[in-house]
Amino acid sequence: MHPTSAPISLSRPSSRTRGFTLIELLTVIAIIGVLAGIVIPVVGKVQASARTTKCASNLRQIFNYYMMDVQNNKGRLPAYKNPVTGSASIWIQGLATKFYGAEIDSLGLILSCPDLIDVKGQPFIDSNKKNDRAPNTYSINNLNLVQDVTASPPAEVTKTLASIVMPARVALAGDGNDSDKDPTYFGGVIGVGRPPLTPHNNKANIVYLDGHVQAVSDMTLLKVTATPAPGTAQSMFWYGQ
After folding, report:
1. Is residue 4 domain-resident?
2. Of 98, 89, 90, nearest to 65 (Cα)?
3. Does any domain span residue 233?
4. pLDDT (tens digit, 9 = 90+) per residue, 187-230?
5. In the list 55, 150, 168, 183, which could disulfide-bond 210, CB 3.0-4.6 Å?
6. Does an H or E element contain 33, and which?
7. Which domain range does residue 179 map to?
8. Could you tell me which residues are beta bridge partners of residue 204?
9. Which burial class, exposed, middle or buried, applies to 4 when counting CB atoms under 10 A from its CB (0-12, 13-18, 19+)?
């Protein structure tokens, strides 16, 4: 009697490829959501930091042009008002008129804060109208001016740079004041009663008279509503004394 062999079972390969289960899909989606929640805020912070850095770079370049004017005026700080008519003008317009030349478009790039320019549109000046007001978002500290009471009528005579005892603590210019609501530019001046905007995480970029730029968040400095007493931090910041 011959031993019988066990039957051999031949299994056919499955014609169906195994897919993801619902649990696996939900797990992947949850992981992607967690990663997005981590990455998106970080990217936003990096972009905001880049805009703040670009704004600070713009102000440093504007300071360089400003100091060219100071040197041309034998060390005297240029007034923001027209010395002939006495009317207020956009201070940066004077810099643009003097120093544009062949660099009209490249200088136009530095006239506005990246966080604020969308409010006013493109920061370029028409090359055929370079004496027009320059759309910009930066404003100058107009309280660097003093009154010459001996003149009749009293004339605004600017200080000399050498007369500023602590230029590293005196605001020159920064993110502008938009209280005038003009469609093309911010108010040309900041100072007592005209605080700068604070677009950089509730901070205003300020360039000081020594050329350094600082993001200032101290509202006791920025939002001064009345003439501060001499010797105070507010008086030094806005008046240089």
Report:
1. no
2. 98
3. yes
4. 677 888 889 999 999 999 999 999 999 999 999 999 999 988 98
5. 168
6. helix 22-72
7. 23-239
8. 216
9. exposed
- The model carries a pTM of 0.72
Dist CA 228 CA 5 (whole Å): 109
Task: Give the orientation angle of helix 91-99 with respect to helix 22-72, to 10 degrees.
Answer: 80
Q: How many other C-beta atoms can be found within 10 angstroms of the C-beta atom of residue 70?
A: 16
Number of structural domains the chain divides into:
1
> How many angstroms separate the CA atoms of 104 and 188, rounded?
20
For residue 39, is it left (φ>0), alpha (ψ between -120 and 50) or beta? alpha
In-domain check, residue 175: yes
**pLDDT per residue as tens digits for the range 92-136:** 655 655 554 434 445 556 778 888 877 665 544 454 444 444 567
Token pair 């005892």 is found at: 165
* CB contact at 8 A, 69 and 94: yes
Question: How are strands ordered across the β-sheet holding 171-175?
Answer: 189-190, 138-141, 171-175, 204-208, 213-216
